[in-house]
Amino acid sequence: MRNRLLDVNQLEAGMITAKEIIYNGTILIGKDIELTNHLLSKLNSIYYLDKVEVYISEEESKELIDLEKVDETLKNITVNVKLLFDNTNTLKSSTTNEINKYTEKLLDELKSNSLFLKNIILNGSGEDIIYRHSVNVAAVSYMIGKWSGFSENKLHYLVYASLLHDFGKTKISKQIINKSGKLTPGEFEIMKTHPRLTYDEIKEIPFISNSVLYGVLMHHERCDGSGYPLGLKGSQIHDFGKIIGISDTFDALNSNRVHKKKKGPLEALKIIRDESLEKLDFKYCNIFLEGLKNFYVGQNALLNNGDTCKIIQINTNNIDSPLILTNNEFVDLSKSSNLHIVELI
């Protein structure tokens, strides 16, 4: 066993405090106390609580350290993507070598570390709607492409397109990009220009693949024709546009933005499933949902009543209401109107 400082949302029932938990000068929980579901609920209700020091096993410690390494890698790639985006001349004159470097770096990490998907689901991209968002979308797009059986070459171009898909947002006023409230109709029309802005900028990159250009241009097109900028339908939309559209939607749902809180992990999947009936591509949504279902089974999660649970089984028809194990009892959330999963832990 060893001591670790954890965020409150990383705590689990059964962990033992290695130090007193103090808030506003008051001892909330003493040292060497086992954290129960009731105590976890109490801690989760305190918004500004600092990290908590607990004893954890070597195995748990290793996963946390590995998740932190993954997060650091994602941050480093994000910084490099920002530097590239902020210098349009470098982007255009790079003859794709600079972009390829970050594409290959991300691909190597995704292939070698299964915790990337967990990190993205746990953390989202926060308020960074351009740079970290683009890296997350690239990682999720990679997973969809991999689950779809794409070749290595096709996966490379898919990740490449995903990294670039929101570059056009850097050409839009920061007042619009960083606005905390809802955009006005006029501001939204300006925001909707970003796929075309991206396309117009990156088409100047020497030897760029048409599949990359179509991916960035079409990632907001929708199968029913309601998307933008071209109002394309169904088979008119390139596969990369369809996949990036799903990944883009998921990361937005799974991230805390200035104007909205992230959806629960399974609630986000339900929205993707509902959108697949008309707007998002049905085939790729099914591939994505099946892959995420397999990932979520066996994961620990937090319920809205403060209890922790393990996800046992997920039914596609009730994707946000799985069978869980909590307090040594099996509970079918599809038959429980007052319980739902808040987040993975």
Descriptive overview:
This protein has 345 residues and is of the alpha+beta class. The chain has 3 domains: 2-56; 59-262, Hypothetical protein af1432, CATH 1.10.3210; 297-344. The chain has helices at residues 37-44, 58-85, 88-93, 97-112, 115-123, 131-147, 152-164, 174-177, 185-191, 194-202, 210-218, 239-253, 265-275, 282-296, and strands spanning 2-6, 16-17, 21-23, 26-29, 52-56, 300-303, 308-313, 323-326, 329-332, 341-344. The protein has a 5-stranded antiparallel sheet. A 3-stranded antiparallel sheet has the order 1-5-2. A two-stranded antiparallel sheet has the order 3-4. Strand 6 (300-303) and strand 7 (308-313) form a beta hairpin. Helix 6 packs across helix 12 (239-253). It starts with a strand and ends with a strand. The relative contact order is 0.10. The model has no long low-confidence stretch (mean pLDDT 87). InterPro entries: HD/PDEase_dom, HD_GYP_dom. This is HD-GYP domain-containing protein. It comes from Clostridium sartagoforme.
Number of helices: 14
Q: Roughly how many Å is the radius of gyration? A: 21 Å
CATH architecture of the largest domain: Orthogonal Bundle
Q: How would you name the CATH homologous superfamily of the largest domain?
A: Hypothetical protein af1432
- Report helical residue fraction: 40-55%
- What coarse outline follows from CA principal-axis ratios? globular
**Largest sheet geometry:** 5 strands, antiparallel
Number of distinct beta strands: 10
Sheet with most strands: strand arrangement = 9-8-7-6-10
The parts where pLDDT drops under 50 for at least 5 residues are none
Oligomeric state, counting identical vs distinct chains: single chain
Report the top-level CATH class of the largest domain: Mainly Alpha
Determine the structural class based on helices, strands and strand pairing: alpha+beta
- CATH fold topology of the largest domain: Hypothetical protein af1432
Relative strand content:
5-15%
Pfam family, one: HD_5
Protein name: HD-GYP domain-containing protein
